[in-house]
Amino acid sequence: MVAPASAAPPAPTTDARAAGYTRETFRGKAAHALDAARVHALTDFVETARTQLSIPGVAVSLFTTDSVIFEGGFGVREIGKSAPVDADTLFMIASNTKPLSTLLLATLVDEGKFTWDTKVTRVYPAFKLSDADLTSRVTMKQLVCMCTGFPREEDAEWLLELKGSSPKSFMDRLGTMKSTRGFGEAFQYTDLLPAAAGFIGGAVLYPQRELDAAYDEAMKTRVFGPLGMTSTTFDFAQALRKNHASPHALRSSMRMPWFRFRRWSMSCWNCPSVDSRRPTLVQRRVAMCAGSRGFNRIAPSPFLVSQV
């Protein structure tokens, strides 16, 4: 029986896990050493999974607290071409940029520019959501907590209107967002508020610059530079001149060959080996990360291009 259109949506279940489920824990267990046999087993697993799932290419970095055990690539950078993925191949890291933007905010908290509990409007007075009360309540940490009640659907509409958009028009768009859940009531993933967090962090450091330029410079000076992430960049023209992997997507929900996905306007590039080994903590444009040589352990997001 179909519920009437006016009926309220069913309440979400509190636990979708199977009866008798016991969460796995590694507490109290000693980690095995990443010896040659285990590295071989892991790399074999990656290549087998890549082939079975029709993934064009992937890069991997295995490291301990003080040394790199393995870094390298599997497959090709683009379907139909022979150039292989290696440890220096740049990949778009999409929402992994969110933790990097969060790290930017964390450095500003350490410097006393604001606290995690500071109201956003005190840091960036132009911040505005569709609800005045909610606008006044949101704190800096809540920009990146996915807990303000805004739905993912807002992101989809925004992504379809990227052409001609700017950081200012993006921030203005926040004023049209409407929540679907109560404040702090549930986890609801969103791109827009973490993106705003990155822009606001940049504006704190470089208030005289355009939001875009301020964010880029803030990430270079406060995150990429100190962590030695020399391959990570938001510059798509620069990334495309280098060893980079093309994005791909399935043609449909059926298992079919992948095709190149050309919409790169919101992404950062990074290489999963060298840059990825640096501990990092988010969202705006998508970044590009390098293959296996430089992945981000913890990264929020404006979108970033970096070596993962």
Summarize the structure.
29% of the residues lie in helices and 12% in strands.
Which features characterize this protein?
disordered C terminus; alpha+beta; 29% helix; disordered N terminus; Beta-lactamase; three-stranded mixed β-sheet
Number of helical segments with 4 or more residues: 9
**Stretches with pLDDT under 50, minimum 5 residues:** 1-11, 253-267, 276-308
What does the largest sheet look like?
Answer: 3 strands, mixed
Q: What fraction strand?
A: 5-15%
The CATH architecture name reads 3-Layer(aba) Sandwich
Radius of gyration: 21 Å
**Form type:** globular
Walk me through what this model shows:
By secondary structure, the chain is α+β, with helices and mostly antiparallel strands. The chain has one domain: Beta-lactamase. Helix content is about 30%, strand content about 10%. The chain is built from nine helices and seven strands, in the order αβββααααααααββββ. The strands form three sheets. Strands 3, 6 and 7 form a three-stranded mixed sheet that branches. Strands 1-2 form a two-stranded antiparallel ribbon. Strand 1 and strand 2 form a beta hairpin. The protein starts with about 35 loop residues before the first helix and ends in a 15-residue tail after the last strand. Residues about 1-10, about 255-265 and about 275-308 have low confidence and may be disordered.
